[in-house]
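Box 3.1. Reading complex inputs
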Amino acid sequence: MQIDDLETPAVVVDLGILDRNIAGMAQAARRSGVALRPHAKTHKCVEIGRMQLAAGARGLSVAKTGEAEVFAAAGFDDLFIAYPVVGEDKGRRLLALVDRVRIAVGVDSAEGALTLAQVFQSAGRSLDVLLKVDVGFHRVGVAPAAAAGVAGRITALPGLHLRGVFTHAGHGYGAETPDRLAQIGREEGTLLVEAAEAVRAAGVPVEVVSVGSTPTAPHAMAVPGVTEVRPGNYVFRDASQVGLGACGLEDCALTVLATVVSVPSPDRAVVDAGSKTLSSDPLRPRPGGHGLVLSGSGASRVERLSEEHGAIAVAPGESFRVGQRVRILPNHACVVANLQDRLWGVREGRVETEFRIDARGRVQ
Amino acid sequence: MQIDDLETPAVVVDLGILDRNIAGMAQAARRSGVALRPHAKTHKCVEIGRMQLAAGARGLSVAKTGEAEVFAAAGFDDLFIAYPVVGEDKGRRLLALVDRVRIAVGVDSAEGALTLAQVFQSAGRSLDVLLKVDVGFHRVGVAPAAAAGVAGRITALPGLHLRGVFTHAGHGYGAETPDRLAQIGREEGTLLVEAAEAVRAAGVPVEVVSVGSTPTAPHAMAVPGVTEVRPGNYVFRDASQVGLGACGLEDCALTVLATVVSVPSPDRAVVDAGSKTLSSDPLRPRPGGHGLVLSGSGASRVERLSEEHGAIAVAPGESFRVGQRVRILPNHACVVANLQDRLWGVREGRVETEFRIDARGRVQ
């Protein structure tokens, strides 16, 4: 099958770029002497996860217990749920996994950790946990100065084994310049290593010091003392990574193939991909439409979305015709993949494979 | 099963409110003397579609050929694809449906219509089409003044039968006041009826004059000459419908049940529902966070989303604790349902049914 045979909208992955992205991050992690544990939330796909392991990744990160179950069932044996998992229901599901899989989960409070500890203690088992440290994103996690105290309380809970600390510098996505991005990445590594030292000074061993985020990864993993990096988006990249200066257009593997269904005026063309395909996620670091139209001059953007309509603001000098196919680079590849049942793997215009989104819908 | 037994995040539908919303719109359409053809893109669920038919709907509207296939396979025999369908591939799939189902599709250009006409003409068959008219949303559709001309060109194409005209006043979602919303609704009906008259004056019969959109429906369907109304969102409603003054909180059937996983500071609580559950769609008519927290005073909002995190800006005087369950009213119910495999139907705290999102992922 050729790419022209795909019905639209279709989400297409350039296999050459995918291979290069997977190999490139693996090589960068090796050079920095850190373990690579890619975040599978980006693709939720067993086959792509296997490609990452084959390239040298130690294991995978996931966001949800349901995602861990899917990858465990597919034979992945080293998983980290990079999320403050809370609740006895989740604890019981984790208990069902620990015999088969080396698994660790995030925690960021003694209260939350207790809900898991009780399940594991009752069963006479132990669950590995990593403490989330907030290095400036201000989403979840404990302040670096509080890490030693919370680590002590978590270590005191029977049923849990604190193996390390982790962070995610999501504020990197707001970095207005590459210099600022690099600074945030260095801070991410430095603050986390300092937190790890403080935890150790309090008598709690710290084995894993794990940083996250694709754009900050090159900077954070270079900090001495960091042991692991967990980028997710790097396999696909997207318009936001380009906007951040973290990669070029030629590094973006995932695009949306759409058809122009209406050209109501010379300055507007409407395609059959809307928010249910491209998502409403904003462009980072600055808002700027809902996708870059790669066809033509590359100067046109998807300006407005409805659920199934993408309205392109046609750049001066360009024109589109009804029935024309266009390639769109989305703002955020991770949420685009999550909206699909499958992605099409393409090499030199030929559709070579279909990637199933195996963990799609595993939201719990 | 009780609602407290559901793992989070879970999307919950209050069955009493759902019944009332379905009955209410059916009654309003009857009173206005128009046919009701609900847009199934909101729920993509066969069971809810059947409830709408049982309440008196004539048939369903859908957005995608793939959605039409799902509902046709489930026995629905009167469908309208309210979208300018373009392309021979789609035409061939429609050809496979016309023997089993009364089906019509939208068109808004002779160029687009031609791609379908060729398929049907070759097969010696005819496809019913409705011409989309732009009444001010400026997305797709022809200007009212151009309707007669385009209708003439489409009628001239063998393989197609123009049955009517339709519109969608999506700009109603930007209405800053209920008065402005009512005005947009009346204009929607009036401009479409005028376009229908112009088409008739040019010698083309017009059977169907169909208006869309939940918030404008009460106003548009009251205009004499309108024959059909196609609201979608009304089954669930959401924070945007409340924001528009189109309904009250008590009319909202769909909510997201989430668990607080972290309380990093007194003014921030983080739940396990992010953009992969709530979507990034903005609140209408004015941006204002990503969901209303109904638990507590109702004054707290989801302020910030990551893929799996929703950060609540905690209202003064409120507090949340780790492990607490909260109900969130999302900005846009249609995209929330689309992110799920299933919705849970709940009555008085008891989980009575599971609604499968049958047409989920049928994006083509």
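In summary: Residues 3-9+248-356 of chain B form a domain with the Lyase, Ornithine Decarboxylase; Chain A, domain 1 fold (CATH 2.40.37.20).
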